[in-house]
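re: ur msg from earlier - yeah i can do the magnesium ion complex, just paste it... oh wait u already did. ok heres what im feeding in:
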Amino acid sequence: MAEAAESRSSRAVKDLILRYLGSSLLVLAIIWLLANFVADPGRSFTVLFQGLGNGALYALIALGYTLVYGIIELINFAHGDLFMLGSVFSGIIVVNIFGATTNTPRNWGILLVSIVLVMVMCGFINLLVERLAYRRLRRAPKLASLITAVGVSFIFQWWGQQSWMTGSTPKQWPQVVPNGGITIGSVTLAWTVMLVIAVTIPLLVLLQWIVTRTRQGRAMRATAQDQDAAMLMGIDVDRTIAFTFALGGAMAGAAGMLYLETIGTTFYGVGFQLGLIAFTAAVLGGIGNLPGAVIGGVLIGVAQAFNDGGPYGLHQQWSQTFIFAILILLMVFKPEGILGNPTVEKV
Amino acid sequence: MSAQTADQPWLARTGEPMLEIANLSVFYGNIAAVQDLSLDVRKGEIVTVVGSNGAGKSTTLRTISGLIKPRKGTITFQGDQIQGKKGNEVVRRGICHSPEGRRIFPRMTVDENLDLGAFLQNDKAAVAAERDRVLELFPRLAERINQKAGTMSGGEQQMLAVGRAMMGNPTLLLLDEPSMGLAPILVDLIFDTIEKIRDQGTTILLVEQNALAALRIADYAYVMESGHLKLEGDAKQLSRDDAIVRAYLGG
Ligand SMILES: Nc1ncnc2c1ncn2[C@@H]1O[C@H](COP(=O)(O)OP(=O)(O)OP(=O)(O)O)[C@@H](O)[C@H]1O
Ligand SMILES: [Mg+2]
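and the outut:
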């Protein structure tokens, strides 16, 4: 009895210390951010805007991880590479097929059509992979589909390496979106970032609407909680899972197009790095949680931007270290992620 | 030992056959869970399947619902063979299943769970009427309508599972141990409710551990033991036969 009470109180002390440490780290991070703004407000606002743009891209990719994980508990390792394919497709469609290389109204129209095309292509590819590979593994041990996802990732990278895609080195495409942006005082709001945000926000709203308001979304949520029970409601579980993959793929396609318009070059390996960061964002926000993926993405985007370009940043060579240090710290203090369920409900 | 209807006219069943299972065998890998099972359910009946743990009762219901594919045999529902069809197609034909272990959607509200029960129903007015009927049968659900289903008590979840299955406006309702985990007073209530549902025109196939209570409300009964059909007959007669009750029904 006494022992139990003692271990309980020592656990309470440990919890308290953890919570205290966690909060002080959070306070330190906020002080660091504010210090940046005090030191150089103009540069900081410019950096913040950049960070929001990067964050929006991460969020779009993270949504694909979180959608698929939410519904079949698969970490889709190939998702980053699907984003890479999307970026290459956009170069091919916008520049090689439509010949849009300059900032004209006609080319903006082409950009709009192309983003829809790329989204449809990536959605379709993801749907196809689900149909061919993951569906038959759904009742197999988790490891089987996980390793399959790794295999699909290699296939996508091989695809990206074909000479009509990027070949084995980074390939550059001219951008429709001009460099520079609006300058207000010492703050610059880049055109590319404005495009990213202008595309991302409607997509997020659309996705949220689909998931929470439509019949298809209800089927997705039910399937995520209990596949057999969903089937007993008359839900076509196979079709619902396929739809979820298509949705995630479409988001990755949009991200690919926005990435290429922002950076101007892409190559077959870009999905690995950005995919990993986006996956981190999904975990950070609470994997399986859609708003969580967006929050995680924006958080990482902004933190990274301040690290890379802020007055008190550690600069680009520490970029990855910085991001993953955030992940590790958050996992120590809040393992379920920012919006994740603290306890896993499984009946 | 088996009481066959054909040569015992006092057991004759009058309704037209709705569900007919013939020579059904179901395996999990190499393990036979159901072997050579034949049973039928007629319109307007409550038919019960009883038997000890692991007898294959739930497996039978899951096979009817299309959650498992049988290895052998046929399942005919209103003239169409449905064995091996996907679960959602079986529901579309009018079979709803309140599964073992309740399987409600824990992170959704009672309201959302009931809505999902009517997923395939397009007639808004009919759904609203069905919902009223469910909430009238289970007033407790009405009180908890906005509560997350996962936070309800076991008995409340059981009511929700039955209510949710009713929302699909089924022709045939499959109930797997609806009395499990209920307080004795609620057990009586749920059996009364099942009779009420039947009287309102839904045919019911009921699986129960609580064999004597099930026989009391059922019209016809099947007794299973380790995957095989052991016995069938008029429910009232079975429950009056002391030898049978002692041997199979834990009386
Ligand atoms: N998923 C499964 N994998 C392997 N064997 C299974 C599986 N589900 C059930 N079984 C086996 O099939 C047999 C029948 O199980 P079933 O669930 O149909 O029994 P039951 O009659 O419903 O029993 P209870 O009254 O305990 O619910 C049991 O021996 C069980 O161990
Ligand atoms: Mg059972």
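cool cool. The longest strand of chain B covers residues 17-28. ping me if u need the other ligands too
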